[in-house]
Amino acid sequence: MGSYVNGSLGPNEQVIQETRYHWIIFLFPSGLLTLWLYPLLVRWSSEFAITNRRIIIKTGLIQRKTVELNIHHVESVNVEQSILGRILDYGTVTIVGSGGTREVFSHIESPMEFRQAYQHNV
After folding, report:
1. pTM, two decimal places
2. CA 99/CA 103 separation, integer angstroms
3. In whole angstroms, what is the distance from residue 45 CA to residue 15 CA?
4. What pLDDT sits at residue 1?
5. Which residues pair with 66 in a beta bridge?
6. Cβ contacts of residue 16 below 8 Å, gap of 6+?
């Protein structure tokens, strides 16, 4: 579990599911041109977690983006997977919150497990 998620857990809050960026990000041009340093930093510095109370997402090392949504304020967690994504188990996760909040995260490892953890927690 990442340090951001650990540091933001409240009393009696437990992590139900964690995921991260899929290894496929190492095959993108940015990974090949930087000798896999850039995707390594991206994967290492990003955290995706579902707790018994919230969805917590943190991306970025220097320029940080965080999304923390109360489970009961999430309208849906949508998953899109290509054929290759289904074979290699990665996809795009879109989180839609009440009030129109829409957050999209591509190339997430085990996106169906992430969505199922949300569905079993509601």
Report:
1. 0.86
2. 12
3. 18
4. 56
5. 58
6. 49, 50, 51, 52, 117, 120, 121
The full set of domain ranges for the chain reads 17-121
pLDDT higher than 80, residue 25: yes
* pLDDT digit string, tens, across residues 54-91: 999 999 888 889 989 999 889 999 999 999 999 999 99
Residue spans of beta strands (DSSP E) within the chain: 15-19, 47-51, 54-59, 65-70, 74-80, 90-97, 102-109
CA separation for the pair 5, 27 (Å, rounded)? 27
CA distance 99 to 28: 34
CA pair distance 121, 110, nearest whole angstrom: 17
Written out in words, the top-level CATH class of the domain with range 17-121 is: mainly beta
